[in-house]
Amino acid sequence: MTPAVADDVAVAAALAEVKAEIARTDSKASVLLAFNGALMAGVWTVATSLRLPPAALAVGAVGVGLLVAAAAVLLAAARPNLGGAQPKGFPLWATLPADQLRAALAGDDLAERVTRLSQLAVGKFARLQRAVDYTRAAGAAFITAALVAAVLAMAGGAR
After folding, report:
1. What does the alpha-carbon distance between residue 84 and residue 120 come to, in Å, rounded to a whole number?
2. Contact, 9 vs 1, CB < 8 A?
3. Residue 34 is part of which domain span?
4. 0.70 exceeded by pTM
5. What is the pLDDT of residues 25-62, one digit of tens each?
6. Distances from the Cα of 10 to the Cα of 14, 49, 159, angstroms
7. Phi, psi of 86 (to 5 degrees)
8. Is residue 159 part of a domain?
9. What is the dihedral of CA 61, 29, 72, 43, to 10 degrees?
10. Is residue 98 part of a domain?
11. Domain assignment present for 126
12. Which of 5, 128, 141, 149 is at 20 to 30 A from 104, Cα to Cα?
């Protein structure tokens, strides 16, 4: 295999890898959105079914705020990036007539595409990490709210 062909194979493999990583982040974002939605439903059920002391409700409200922030970050991670004013790849191809598409494909730089998609993937993973951190903090707030409610109930301070 010549060095040029080996480079092309390596770039094509890198492109496939980064596309797989983007698909993984989208799948993880979907699972975490579903998890956060179920957690939010559970929290809503508890908050509206039980007589909780104001202190527990306040701590629980912090948890709800963190879950909402996590959902917003997850939606940002899953949001498609169509390139804005300077689209590349398929968003550009969708705007071109066939002859211009052929010319664009002939001049397509796979290495540049790998770089752009890698930057996109890193951004998605960073948002995913932030959302997981928010979700974990929300869980800690909910556990704290439950402990506050239990301590106040044992002390006779529940309303």
Report:
1. 14
2. yes
3. 3-154
4. yes
5. 999 999 999 999 999 999 999 999 999 999 999 999 99
6. 6, 58, 66
7. -125, 70
8. no
9. -20
10. yes
11. yes
12. 5
